Amino acid sequence: MRDCWKKTRSKAGVASIQPRTSFTRNVSKLRWFPPDAIPPDVTPVLSMQEGIKKKQTSRWREYRRHAAPGLRGAPGNVSRWKPKPTSDPEGKEENLSPPASAGANLDETSVDAWEIDVPNKTPVPSRSPASLSHFSLSLSPSYSSSAMPIPSERNLATERNFTETPPDYPLRGTRNQHRQERDTDSSLHHLTSFIDVDGQADDDDDEVGYEECVYFTPPSFSVSSKDSAVTTEEPQGVLGEVQHVVDTVLTVLVKDINDNAPVFPNTTIYGKVEENGAANLSVAVVAAWDADDASEGTNARLTYSIEKNVIDERSGDAIFAVHPETGLVRTALCCLDRETTPEYHIQVVATDGGGQKGTGTVVIRLSDVNDNSPRLARKQWNLTVQETWGDQEPENTTLLEIAAADRDTANYFHYRVVKESGWGWEHFGIRTVGAVGQLYPARTLDYEDVRHREGFKFMVQVTDRGRGGWTDPLHLDSGWISVKLKDVNDNPPEFIRPQAHVTVREDAAPGTLLATLPAHDPDMAGQQKVDYWVEGGWEALKVDSEGSVTLWRALDRETPGGAAGMALLVAVDRGVPPLTATATLSITVTDVNDCAPTLLPPTVFHVPEDSPPTMLGVLKATDKDMWALGHGPPFNLSLSSSNPDHVLASVSLKFDPLLDSGRGGAELWTMGGLDREAWPALEVDVSVGDAGGLWASHTVVVVVTDLNDHPMKPAAKTVYLWKTQGGGSEAPLGRVYVEDPDDWDAADKTYAWDGPAHPMFSLHPREGTIFAASVVREGSYALRFKVSDRAWGQEGVAANVTVVVRDLSPDALTHATPIILTPTTPEHLTRGWTPTGGGGGLGTVLEEVLKALGERSTDHKVQVVSVYGSSSPYHTHHTIQQRLGQHSYYNYNKHADEGKAVKNDTKGEVQGEDAVYPPPPPFACVWLSVVAPDGVFLNPTRLQGILGLHVQQLEEATKLRVELESPKEAERRLEDTDASLTDLQPGDPSSAASLASTTLPLQVVDANTTSLVTPRLTRALPCRAHDPETCTPSSCLNGGRCLPTPAGNRCVCPGGAEGWQCKVLARTFLGSGWAWVPPPPRCLPTTLSLRLLTRRPHALLLYAGPMAPTHRPKDTAPTPMLALQLRHGRPQLLVEGGVEPMKVEVNATLTDGEWHHLHFRLDAQGVALMVDHCGRGWERPNQTYTHCLGRRAWANPDGWGAWPGSGPLQVGGMAHRPPTAEEHRWAEAPLPHPLHGCLSHLTLNGQLVDLGQPAHSGGSMPGCRPQETACLEGEGGCGHRGRCVGGLNHPECECHPGWFGVGCSTPSPSTTLGRGSYMRVALSFTPPPTSLTLQARLRTWGRASGALLHVAAQHHAAAFTLHLRSGIVCVSLTGAGVGLREACVEGRSVGDGAWHTVFGERHGDNLLVGVDDGDGWRRNDSLVSLQAWRGRGRGRGDGGGDASPFPPPIPILVDKHEGGGGRGPAHGRRRRGGWLDGGPG
Hints:
The protein is mostly beta strands. It has 16 helices and 82 strands. Strands 52, 53, 54, 55, 56, 57, 58, 59, 60, 61, 62, 63 and 64 form a 13-stranded antiparallel beta sheet that branches. Strand 81 (1475-1476) and strand 82 (1479-1480) form a beta hairpin. The two termini are 78 Å apart. The model is unreliable at 1-55, 66-175, 186-240, 874-917, 966-998, 1430-1445 and 1463-1481 (pLDDT under 50).
């Protein structure tokens, strides 16, 4: 019976009810209820106490295993009883199986009622099962059919058929009483066997406490047996056989025994008592429960005791006691200490009257009281904090967190600074935040204050009793804080004199000291260094490191604003961030009589030919000097004795001191008729003197206007047409020529064909201009014309023209270089020259060029490609030769008053109304190319360099000034070049305009008997060149071959060469060598970079400037020059040719035998020089950019629009004698020491320069021999698929992408990456925190996107990623305090299915990304450090300049065991032969 409570409550799985014998109990429902849930409509007929012997339980289990296998399923007629079923809307009871989760430990509230239907529903008065000491069973045999399982869901029709007794069924009498008794016993046995229906043997049943198990049956309980005799006829429609029915009552009495031990409902009881309490404090109450009957003697009478107690170590007494009857646990001793033992465990025992025991554990916890003093974490804190910025109120910033410890749990700490406890206590305060105290500045902390600089020391206290606990010394603790201040750059420099005024003579020599305005910086205890620059002051001042302002060039009071000026002296300290202060220097310039008087316009007069003596005009003079000082009128005018005889015989000058209001003037007269055919213009020199005795000569031009006073004569003309290949518009050839001295008679002449017109040429009948068709071919064409002159009545005068047409090859155009000759005109230069016979001035130029090429070049041919220039109708051959050297084409004095009126403040009268300087002289520009006998053209860079070396010889032979590229003319031609000229084939060595394109304009140089028509070339070099995608037989360098591939023609390179054009990127210089490469682009910004390997402290790395001494007049600017050099191992950059010289130096030593990167940039703001991408040297705290970056700003930024230099860029040294500063008016000349070492990866605006076959070289060789030798000494070299890297100290082999292993002979395997795939790689080294390089080799298709390589810092605080974005290669830097920075190679996509090498680099704040060889469009450098300008480091100084554009870069700290990974770019393949930061991948 004990099993029934447990099994019925907790087990499921009764599917049918089948007794052991073959009889069926017509049972409608057997109901089980907990003791307090018996419904009133059911009569309890069976009640029994718990504690049935295990013997009876064994019988039930035996029956279950052998006779009732069908009871193991879910009971078909067992359903959960619900007092008020509401879940079924039809009022039906829901048939459910007992829950399998129900267990033996369920309490009464969790017990569900289970019931089995019974046919007879007769109500019987209920009785409480707990009140029954016996149980009764009412049995009533009935008729039934054979055994049948009860369905799991109730079917009322079926239930009626098998469970209800028909009312008209005949009942049997009392025969066979013995059989009835037997059936009754059998029914009782089967009824009790129905209890255990779970189908499982449980040996632990007796260990579980059971409540009462009650079965309910109706007053009539029917059983059937197959051996019952049928005594009556079976009624119609009733199944089963006829049975006898008998009623009986059985009463059973159960006697309790002490078979249950006491049990604690909770095996662990928790108690609590306050620490330091007295004895006999209540802790907890324990209570156990006994299942035996409490009314049966002492079976359930419990007594409590402590079996395992806690003993006080000092006294040996037990700490706790328990009341034996009530179970009250109390303290037996006083003064328990929570901080010593916060928790106790004792074991209590409950014993019943029979001696059975139950145990439980009591956990006693001590509650805390504030009985311990707080203790500060330290007794002394020493800290260094930054001073307060400036004079402002201190920020509420936490300087130090002070922690205290207290053994008590409930603490409320409060901190304070003890008043008057030490020096500086009032400057600090402490706020309590949680359990800590935060020290903060309460007053300004000033490092510049001597007392503050010595530091502070004061006492702090903590209490655990809150704000009011400072009076209890037992709850206080004290400590000392010592504070030292750290200086911050919070004070700008301070000038001793913020304002100053000086007066200086305008003829003061350069170097004259004007004023000394030193500045002092209070920071760093007054030891902070201060740099200076000067702004304003006509850009003629400079300042040294002591604040002394001096002149660096002469002043000119006569320039606009030159009489008085103001300069701002800027002092900048070297702190971070740099702070500036400004002082004002006002300057008054006193006049000296240094300006000769000039003529006022007009100075050009016209007179008709053969006119009688005529007054041409009145000449007046002016002077820019101060007239009040006697530096002006009265003026004196006279004809200069330098005038030639024909001028003195033709004009006269009549001086009158009263003219021009007494200032003096002169009348200019002709002395008779002038013949234009003899002298079309007279240039008359007039000497003008002022009151101070200063004289100057000025030119007055007398133009003789022509009269048609000569008849025509037949003549012949030859036209040379040099045209570009291809189509285009008609070509002008000049005018038909007849011999006629008159040249202003075009209106009287008409022109016509003498015979039929030639189909390839056309004639303008009024102007006589000839045009050639665009499709005219090479050859010689004879054209016949006739000319008529109506003034003389002449008609049909013969004029024959021979046209010689030559097609200029593209090579002739691309290999041409210019020569500018001044002063001359193209007509004068070409007069008398023929292509075959030479002659004239142009012939002289060609002869000197051949001489410059050397003896071996006698078989070379110099071709004239283009001639153009400017002409002046007032210049004659005589005056040109006479004034050679008097004019500087590049006029240094930019503030000369050209065409501007200047008003004299003293006189209040206009002193000038027109140009005071002569107009620029005419010039002629000749483009030449040199071709060898085998048809190969000389490299234009080499030709330009050779001409630069022989400038003096050219000038002596031609009597003209020779320039290879006039800076001003180069800029002007750049502006005048048609925009369409830039859309030509890229990558040409000379110019974008010097190509075979019909868009080139043609220039006609008409010298009457000859006419030269050539394309007008300009050197419009693109700022960023782009290599073509495919190769030609001539575009592959260094022995490379152009071979067809599926992707187009590609160069196949020999060993040592690489890239799309097989460039050799390194060159060795032996200490006396040099190499010529194309010059820097003439545009801004311009960026040049290179890699350097050397151990020598002095070396000239790059030089672009004059190659021979030239005459520089006083009024001209210094010769343009650019030089990159090492001086004492430190890089320097010199720039000359602008308004002021520039010098930038970086404080870094590059002679350690390692490779170093150098970048310099010229832009409109200034010059910057960077070492190693500013990615190294950040290990020291408070490091600034001075170790890797130097910059200077232009004093006059508007004056720079393009680099004004000319000639080749010389690498590693000079091919000539080093120039001096005196020869070219430089502040400093470049070093004369050639490089001993290697240069590589020379880049001009992103374009790699080939160093294997430079235009010209000497004392150098391709490749870097010292580096290659370093690897040969180790493992025997790197093979033809590797290269030696690492410098001279740590050489190692680096395999080409796609190869690895010894000798780089093993192809690296590839890995296919799909969408979402990735790999994690553990690094074997720790990358540098501010410099990282990633490289991979991949092949992908389409516009793929995804990460390739990803390196993240610890905790992913920052990351550097090489990735694809729609097929474009990008690198990005995230985190690191900079947000997102990204650089991409926007030129092309790599999704073409070919293998590509992609790389990305992070160096400090700079990002670099590239594809394959990284040449041209395949590379993008985002050099933030080089391009950013924060300060305005103007003027001349020590060369350091503004080198703090940003705070130091944030490091990316990568754990070498974490490393990085890659993700698949959609779909693709990637080789694992890449490398990470120089190491093999």
